[in-house]
């Protein structure tokens, strides 16, 4: 058993600040994260999905290095959502996060142009043999296996969509590793939508577009995670369409993943959407009880802790939204057992995660709502948390608040707090405004890169509700089984 003192955590945070610089640390870490150690795991908590995923994707290596330098040992990183951290965020912090994301491609292009290097192809951890299969993800898993066995054949393109933390990245990385094991000479490339954008911006700035085409258009398999990141970037989107056509014309494989169905990704061109829909589009649902219990058993085995089946089922029944929350709850139970020096019992598990259950459940649903609404309007969830009031952001924020009030048990103050520390009166007014527009059956308008767009609000709300509610339907209906 290893329990690191608070000063060790403080030293790790200080070392991270040294490595990333004060600007990035203040934007992404200060008041926005909490670190804790459990055996071989370092748990990083953040207030919402957006911050968690950004830190995991961009700073995981830095965090690992900092922890290793301070503690002189390696830790496995585990990321979790702690809604209580939202209270500590600076008022303008969401604004700075949005600015950082918006300027990231240009910033990276400048840095890469100075260094003359591109990011190395990552070492992918996900493997299909470790993917826990159940009714909520069986179709997506079967499609992934088929791609490995016969790339470029039946399921091409393969488009996997579903909420945050449901295993889409694991599936995509599993496909890459499976392709590599089956045929080491196969040319494949795995990138996120953001990395594809950064790579393209760099190639344009460095006048190396031919090299960019060579990296992407002659592949046997192109796998892109979070492809919705391209939706609000017209030049990158056009380049991706040409890349798509080249690979598809050669009969090679394309695999894509997004938090939303292709039709619900705002600002994607009709040409791209039609090509996405021409292949296999498969949804990963919220994990059913079978999958949740299986994931917990697998994680407990990795932690080398003895956890009884009643405790496994207790955690599985109380955390129904996604895999990340399950792992976070399990780590908290293990940490509690270590602190008090007692075996893991049902009573101990209840004490350890009681507050987490109360805090997390409604916020997870709100995270789904934010993600669906933001992607539809070509925004990020962080845009909804900002103080900005452009027509598009104000409309999207109002719809998200209205849906949160309608589909969760959260109060107006709770919704406001978790959407960028907004005043409860802001949530009340936004919800009333959306309700009034619905009652009058009016059309709403917002701006896109291609100009103004409009749609009947009732139709729009119905489409968004189908996406939001379907994400949580599996979890809500199996909790009592």
Key traits:
5-stranded parallel sheet; alpha/beta; Rossmann fold; 481 residues; 19 helices; 3-stranded mixed sheet; 10 strands; Chromosomal Replication Initiator Protein Dnaa, Chain: A; GMP Synthetase, Chain A, domain 3
Question: Biggest sheet, strands in spatial order?
Answer: 5-6-7-4-8
Q: Which percent range describes the beta-strand content?
A: 5-15%
Q: What number of structural domains do the residues give?
A: 3
CATH superfamily assignment of the largest domain? P-loop containing nucleotide triphosphate hydrolases
Give me the CATH fold name of the largest domain: Rossmann fold
The biggest sheet, with number of strands, parallel, antiparallel or mixed sense and barrel status, is: 5 strands, parallel
Q: Using the coordinates above, name the CATH class of the largest domain.
A: Alpha Beta
Q: What is the CATH architecture term of the largest domain?
A: 3-Layer(aba) Sandwich
- Runs in which pLDDT lies below 50 for 5 or more consecutive residues are 471-481
Question: Tell me, what's the shape?
Answer: globular
Question: Would you list the SSEs in sequence order as H and E?
Answer: HHEEHEHHEHEHHEHEHEHHHHHHHHEEH
What do you see in this structure?
This protein is of the alpha/beta class and 481 residues long. The chain folds into 3 domains: 1-89, GMP Synthetase, Chain A, domain 3 (2-Layer Sandwich); 122-283, P-loop containing nucleotide triphosphate hydrolases (Rossmann fold); 361-478, Chromosomal Replication Initiator Protein Dnaa, Chain: A (Orthogonal Bundle). It is 58% helix and 11% strand. The chain has helices at residues 6-20, 22-28, 49-71, 93-115, 138-149, 168-182, 193-205, 209-216, 234-249, 270-277, 289-303, 309-318, 323-340, 346-376, 381-385, 391-407, 412-418, 424-439, 457-478, and strands at residues 34-38, 41-46, 76-81, 158-161, 188-192, 221-225, 253-258, 280-283, 443-448, 451-456. The strands form 3 sheets. The protein has a 5-stranded parallel β-sheet with strand order 5-6-7-4-8, with helices on both faces. The chain has a 3-stranded mixed β-sheet with strand order 1-2-3, sandwiched between helices. The protein has a two-stranded antiparallel ribbon with strand order 9-10. Helix 1 (6-20) packs across helix 2 (22-28) and helix 5 runs parallel beside helix 6. The longest helix is centred in the C-terminal third of the chain and has 31 residues, at 346-376. The two termini are 35 Å apart.
């Amino acid at each position: 058993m290893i329990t690191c003192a608070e000063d060790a955590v403080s030293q790790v945070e200080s070392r991270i600040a040294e490595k990333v610089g004060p600007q990035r640390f203040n934007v992404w870490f200060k008041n926005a994260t909490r670190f804790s150690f459990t055996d071989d795991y370092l748990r990083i908590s953040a207030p919402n999905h957006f911050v968690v995923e950004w830190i995991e994707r961009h700073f995981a290596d830095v965090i690992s290095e900092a922890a290793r330098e301070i503690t002189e040992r390696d830790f496995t990183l585990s990321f979790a959502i702690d809604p209580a951290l939202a209270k500590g965020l600076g008022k303008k912090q969401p604004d700075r996060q949005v600015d950082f994301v918006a300027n990231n491609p240009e910033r990276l292009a400048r840095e890469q142009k100075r260094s003359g290097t591109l990011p190395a192809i990552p070492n992918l951890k996900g493997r299909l043999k470790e993917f826990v299969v159940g009714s909520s993800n069986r179709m997506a898993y079967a499609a992934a296996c088929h791609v490995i066995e016969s790339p470029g054949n039946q399921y091409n393109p393969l488009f996997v969509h579903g909420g945050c933390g449901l295993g889409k990245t694991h599936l995509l990385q599993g496909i890459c590793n499976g392709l590599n094991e089956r045929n080491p000479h196969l040319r494949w490339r795995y990138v996120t939508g953001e990395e594809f954008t950064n790579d393209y911006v760099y190639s344009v700035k460095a006048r190396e577009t031919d090299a960019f085409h060579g990296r992407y258009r002659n592949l046997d398999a192109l796998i892109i995670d979070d492809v919705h990141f391209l939706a609000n970037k017209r030049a990158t989107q056009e380049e991706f369409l040409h890349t798509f056509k080249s690979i598809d014309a050669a009969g090679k494989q394309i695999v894509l993943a997004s938090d939303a169905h292709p039709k619900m990704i705002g600002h994607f061109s009709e040409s791209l959407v039609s090509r996405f829909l021409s292949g296999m589009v498969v949804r990963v649902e919220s994990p059913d009880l079978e999958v949740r219990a299986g994931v917990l058993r697998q994680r407990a085995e990795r932690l080398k802790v003895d956890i009884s089946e009643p405790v496994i089922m207790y955690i599985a029944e109380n955390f129904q939204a996604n895999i990340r929350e399950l792992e976070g709850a399990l780590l908290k139970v293990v940490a509690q057992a270590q602190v008090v020096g007692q075996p893991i019992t049902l009573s101990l598990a209840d004490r350890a995660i009681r507050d987490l259950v109360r805090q997390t459940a409604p916020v997870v649903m709100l995270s789904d709502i934010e993600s669906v609404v933001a992607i539809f309007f070509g925004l990020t969830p962080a845009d909804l948390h900002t103080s900005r009031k452009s027509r598009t952001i104000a409309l999207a924020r109002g719809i998200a608040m209205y849906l949160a009030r309608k589909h969760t048990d959260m109060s107006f103050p709770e919704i406001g707090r978790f959407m960028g520390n907004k005043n409860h009166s802001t949530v009340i007014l936004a919800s009333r405004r959306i309700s009034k527009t619905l009652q009058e059956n009016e059309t709403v308008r917002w701006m896109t890169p291609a100009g103004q767009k409009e749609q009947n609000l009732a139709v729009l709300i119905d489409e968004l509700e189908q996406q939001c509610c379907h994400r949580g339907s599996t979890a809500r209906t199996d909790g009592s089984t």
